Structures are given as C-alpha cells and as structure tokens.
Amino acid sequence: MVAYCHKDHFASLLVGVYVPNYDDLQFCNTLHAKLARYRDVPQIWGGNSNWILSPMVNSSRGPSWQPLAIALALAAVAEAGGIIDVWRYCSLQGREYTYYPTFHDIYMSIDYWHISLSLLSRVLDVTLCIVHTHSPVLLVLELDGPHSNSFSWHFPQNSSMDIVFREELAKTIDEYFKSNLGSLKTFATIWEAFKAYICWLTISKHAGLRHSLRDHLAWLEAERVHRETVEQNLLRDSTIR
Questions:
Q1: Exposed site from 9, 54, 87, 180, fewest CB < 10 Å?
Q2: What InterPro entries would the database entry show (predicted)?
Q3: CB under 8 Å to 86, separation ≥6 — which residues?
Q4: How far is C-alpha 236 from the geometric centre of its chain's CA atoms?
Q5: Backbone phi and psi for residue 16, each to the nearest 5 degrees, phi listed first
C-alpha cells in the first residue's frame, strides 16, 4: 500500500509493504514503479519486509546460505530511492534481526522502519520493543513542518455582485491613484501598497457586514424569546381563569 499524505506543510509517502519470503521479483518491479512517481517526496516504509541480507542471521541454513534474490532486489529499490534502515543507521553495533519464531527456527529482520535519508534529522527516537519473540522497531518522527503566518487572500465573489460596494470601490480606487501617482514613489511600490489597501478595505467591509448580520440575528432571537414569553404568560393567565 502506498499513501501520499500532506499535513501541516509537510508531505510524505507512507509505504506499507509485506514482502514475500520467496523470490518474486515482479513485486519489487511493481513497488519501484509506484515509488518512482513520487521521487521527490520523503518516504516512510513500514510492515513486514522479510529483509534477510546476511547469511549469518539465518540459523536454519548455515553460513553457506545466500540471500534471496528478492532481498537483493528490495535493497536495490531502497538504494535507488535514498531509503535507509533507520534503526541500523542509528545502532551500528546492534543485532541484525528483530524476530525469532521458534516454529521456523530462523532469525528474521522484519518490522523495521525504513525512511528517506532526508528524514533522518527528524528522528526523535528509534528503539526495539520486546513482544514475546518479536522485537518490532519503535520509531518516533517529528513531522510538523514550519508554520507560516501568511495566507492566500482572494477577492470575495459575492462582493462583485454588490452594486453599492462596486461603486464605493471604484471611487476609492480613483482617489487612491490620484493621491499617489504624482508622488516620488515608484509605480511598483504604489501597486503593491494598493493591493494591500484593497485587501484591508474589503476585509473591513465584510467584517462590518458580518457584525451587522450578527447584531440583526441577535435582535431577531431576542424578539422571538420575548414573543414566546408573552404568549406563555397569556396562556397561563387564561388557564388560571
């Protein structure tokens, strides 16, 4: 599974892999083709990678055993994408496996996290968790991107439908340029200041409209409550009589 995520100005590609424990090079080809579409997006791989690259890790086959072709192909896909085994990178002297199922009598390096090298500076913690015979890797990343106070402002479409506002705006624009075009300022400065001025003017206008609407709705609500109170009092008086 490959999911593109975007949160708080930070984009990443989440890759959930369950690699076959037999040679299936088509799996790696498909994975490589999907990841190539997001070449410039930082990647986070998780899942069961069945990643056995060292013969010494596998106790059931002896030192003469050679890695599966799919393991080498998967390593090539990771290298092409700038992907690293983050726990191995941070624990050079640690063991090479995280799982020992007694039924199969084999050491396996599964449930590792692999990330783009560009994310290494965001790693807060990477440790092994002991769960019975399983030792999955716990990875903590700081993914919040830089927050910006800037915003993209667009002229409200409903304002262009307001004839009175359009007339006021046209008059304001004429007065602005008449007052500033004869100054010593460059036209670029006048234009940039004009955009900020129009933005402020429009926002102020709409803020005034919102406040007026809010006050009007509050008045209507007060009238409704008053009317219901009067009706209830009349009903109570008639019942008493």
A1: 9
A2: Endo/exonu/phosph_ase_sf (IPR036691)
A3: 112, 113, 114, 115, 120, 123, 126, 137, 139
A4: 59
A5: -100, 115
Specify the DSSP class assigned to residue 102. Answer: T
Indicate the residue type of 61.
R
Q: For residue 105, what are the contacts with CB-CB under 8 A and spacing of at least 6?
A: 59, 60
205 by Cβ neighbours in 10 Å (0-12 / 13-18 / 19+) ranks as: middle
C-alpha Rg value of the chain to the nearest Å: 33
* Residue 162: CA count within 13 A, CB half-sphere: 15
157-208 residue pLDDT tens: 566 667 777 788 788 888 888 877 776 567 777 777 777 777 777 777 777 7
Q: Distance between alpha carbon 5 and the CA centroid of its chain, in Å?
A: 5
Encoding tokens for residue 207? 């803020």
CB count within 10 Å of CB 117 equals: 13
Instruction: Specify the residue for token string 């092994």.
Output: 128
Q: Which two tokens stand for residue 119?
A: 């994310």
pTM given for the model: 0.47
